[in-house]
Structures are given as C-alpha cells and as structure tokens.
Design a protein that fits this description.
This protein is an alpha+beta fold and 294 residues long. It has three domains: 70 residues, no CATH class; 124 residues, Nucleotidyltransferase, domain 5 (2-Layer Sandwich), CATH 3.30.420; 57 residues, no CATH class. It contains eleven helices and ten strands. A hairpin with a 2-residue loop joins β3 and β4. This is Transposase IS701-like DDE domain-containing protein.
Length: 294
C-alpha cells in the first residue's frame, strides 16, 4: 500500500479543522469525547503510512486540556467506547457537503471500496477480490455512494458488506460487536439502494446514477433504480441477455395438472433474447482514436 502524503498542517489549517469538527459536537453524548474528535481527525490526515491508533497517537500533539499520560489508550477509548450517534454524524456531514456541492446536475456514483486486512477479526473480512490491491486478498468490502456535480465531488455514505460466512456465525458477530439491526443478508445492490434512499431523502438533488458492472448486471438493482424514477448508466458484461424488440409475454395460469408455472413465458413468434456478445458481433463498428488528455 502506498504511503499517504499530507502537506504540513499550518495553524490556519488546524483552526479550520477544529471548526469543522465542532460542527459534529452534538453527535456525541458527552463533551470530553467530542474534544477528541479533532485530535483523531488530525491524526488521520497527517502524513504517515499507518493510521491505526498506536502510531497515530504518537504523531499528534495534544492540546493542554487533553493532556493525559497514555494518549494511545485515550484515543482507543474514544474510537471504540465513546457513545456517539453515527447516523447523526453522517447526516450532519452530508449537510456540510451539500453546502459546497449540491447542484441540480448532480450525479450519484455507486462503487465498492475495499480495505486490505491482515487478520480475521475485522467486521466482514474474508478472502475476496480486493480492488485496492487489484487481486484476491484478505479484505473488507464496503458499498459506497458518492456525489459528483459541476461544483466538485465528495463521498456521501458507506456501509460494510457482510458475507454469508459472517452472517452464519452468531458468536463471531457477537465478538466483533455487530449491532443486531445490521445482521441482515443484503446483496451489495440492496445496500446501494438503501444508501441512495437515505441520501436522497435528505434533499440532495440528482436524477442520474452511475455504477460499474458489479451492479449493472443485477436485474433487481436496475429495477430498483427505475422504480425510484432514476436514470442510470451502468456497466454490463457481454454475457448479459437483452431484447432488441419489445417481447410479448404469456402470464402464468392456474395449474390443471403437473408442475404449476411460476414465471411468464415468451409468446409464440415473440422476439427472442440475444447476448450482448452476439449483438456486438453484428453491430457495425466505427474506429475511434484518441490521445491522453482528450
């Protein structure tokens, strides 16, 4: 993993960071944990390869009012034990981002974000494709929704994907502290739709959704976007089957004998479906040449 570089934080930048963190203070049940928020944020954006608590606590100077003998323990307690309202913080964050980026021409982008891991205890971790490394590896995978507009872009929401290997192990879920409401079997597409509902419910404007083939090949995902009145441009694979003309269907009827029909079937003489691979092979091609920067 490449090292993260952050320019030196001068007093003006630190003051702006503290002011930003102060906008989230009411998401914390107690005042003292809220004071650790800017310290933790400062550690995350300060130059350094490792962002875990131990190295972070060593490189961030503490303000006089938070001077403690063991900064590492204090930061660990802030991250893992301090009571705070996650969704309230997310909602406030999106409101702050909307002040800068909200635009009628806004676009929602659905994507996967992966986090390489060494151990087996991080929530949702398993051996799977890791986009951050470009190969199969031990990692967590989260579904994320981003916002792009003429004014800029920003992440909006993110939720960890829980594989079946986790959902079938109650003891493992208990040890990791996974809340009961989050112990649901959801596909990545279902998670993406729930995230979209949440961010759009807060008033962010936009009618177009972009996603790669990981979401585009899912019929339920595409149908979910259409049901919400959203336009979409999604990636697909050449194995996807499509109709070039509107097909005619025969709805299932009550069975009079034998196995009952559950799905509609194509009517006699109706156009047949074709794979995108086949469709592409018979579509006229036009050669296009471009150079980097075009």
């Amino acid at each position: 993993m490449s090292k993260t570089y952050t320019p030196e934080l001068d007093p003006e930048a630190l003051s702006r960071l503290d002011a930003y963190a102060a906008r989230f203070r009411d998401a914390f049940a107690l005042d003292r944990p809220a004071r650790w928020c800017p310290v933790y944020l400062r550690g995350l954006i300060t130059d350094g390869e490792r962002k875990s608590i131990e190295p972070l606590s060593r490189r961030v100077p503490l303000p006089p009012e938070l001077a403690v003998k063991d900064p590492e323990q204090a930061l660990q307690q802030f991250v893992s034990q301090s009571p705070w309202d996650e969704q309230a913080a997310w909602k406030r964050y999106r409101a702050v981002m909307a002040e800068c980026f909200a635009d009628p021409a806004g676009i929602f982008v659905i994507d996967d974000t992966t986090f390489p891991k060494q151990g087996k205890h991080s929530v949702g971790v398993q051996r799977q494709h890791c986009g951050a490394l470009g190969k199969k590896a031990n990692c967590q995978c989260a579904v994320s929704v981003h916002y792009v507009s003429p004014k800029g872009h920003c992440p909006l929401d993110l939720r960890l994907y829980l594989p079946e290997s986790w959902l079938g192990d109650e003891a493992r879920l208990d040890r990791a502290g996974v809340p009961e409401p989050e112990r649901r079997m959801l596909t990545k597409g279902q998670i993406a739709l729930e995230l979209l509902d949440r961010v759009r419910g807060e008033g962010l404007p936009g009618q177009l959704v972009l996603a790669d083939a990981g979401y585009g090949v899912s019929g339920p995902s595409r149908a979910g976007l259409a049901e919400r009145g959203l336009h979409y441009i999604v990636g697909v694979t050449d194995e996807l089957v499509v109709f070039t003309e509107e097909p005619r269907w025969i709805e299932p009827t009550a069975a009079t004998g034998g196995r009952p029909q559950k799905r509609p079937r194509l009517a006699e003489g109706s156009p047949r479906p074709v794979s995108l691979r086949e469709l592409a092979s018979r579509t006229p091609r036009r050669k296009v040449t471009w150079r980097e920067g075009t």
